[in-house]
C-alpha cells in the first residue's frame, strides 16, 4: 500500500501535519483514502475533514464535499463543519448543517455544537434563529449542565 504523501510527492503527509497542502494534494489524499477503503473509516475521514475545514491551508468547500461522502457522519463530523462555517463568511451554512444534524434522528447536538451554532446565528444576523436555538438548549437541559453552553448563551444574549 503506497501512500501518496511519501517519498517527496508534495501531497499531504497527514490531515494533522500538513502545513502547506494544496487542493491537488488534498485530492491525492482523498483518492488514497478511497482506493484503500479508508473513506469508510469515520475516524480517518473526520481527521481529513477537520483539516480541510479548520486549517489555514485547507478548503472549507472541499470539506463539504468530503462530508457528502461520509457514510455515517457523527456528531464530531457535524460539529467540525458547524464550527468552520460559523466563523466563515458563510455562517448560514453552519445552520444548514445544524438542521441536517437535527433531522438525522440518530445524532444529538452536544455541548460543542451550540456555542458555534449561536455564533453562526450572530454572524448571520439571525436573531430569530438564535432565540430558537436558545430555547432548544433550555428545553433539552443542556444549559444547566455545561459551562461552554452557558457562556455561549450569555454571549448570545448580550
Automatic annotation (TrEMBL):
Q: Name one GO molecular function term.
A: RNA binding
- Biological processes per GO annotation: RNA modification
Q: Does the keyword Acetylation apply?
A: no
> What InterPro entries is this protein classified in?
PPR_At4g14850-like_plant, PPR_rpt, TPR-like_helical_dom_sf
Please list every transmembrane segment annotated in the UniProt record, as residue ranges: none
Q: Which UniProt keywords apply?
A: Repeat
Name this polypeptide is given: Pentatricopeptide repeat-containing protein
Amino acid at each position: 500500500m503506497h501512500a501518496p504523501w511519501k517519498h517527496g510527492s508534495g501531497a499531504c503527509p497527514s490531515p494533522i501535519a500538513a502545513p502547506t497542502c494544496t487542493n491537488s494534494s488534498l485530492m491525492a489524499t482523498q483518492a488514497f483514502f478511497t482506493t484503500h477503503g479508508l473513506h469508510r473509516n469515520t475516524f480517518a475521514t473526520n481527521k481529513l475533514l477537520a483539516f480541510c475545514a479548520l486549517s489555514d491551508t485547507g478548503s472549507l468547500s472541499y470539506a463539504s464535499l468530503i462530508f457528502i461522502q461520509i457514510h455515517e457522519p457523527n456528531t464530531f463530523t457535524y460539529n467540525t463543519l458547524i464550527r468552520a462555517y460559523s466563523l466563515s463568511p458563510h455562517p448560514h451554512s453552519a445552520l444548514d448543517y445544524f438542521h441536517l444534524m437535527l433531522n438525522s434522528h440518530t445524532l444529538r447536538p452536544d455541548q460543542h455544537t451550540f456555542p458555534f451554532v449561536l455564533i453562526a446565528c450572530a454572524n448571520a444576523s439571525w436573531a430569530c434563529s438564535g432565540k430558537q436555538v436558545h430555547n432548544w438548549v433550555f428545553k433539552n437541559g443542556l444549559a444547566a449542565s455545561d459551562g461552554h453552553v452557558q457562556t455561549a448563551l450569555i454571549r448570545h444574549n448580550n
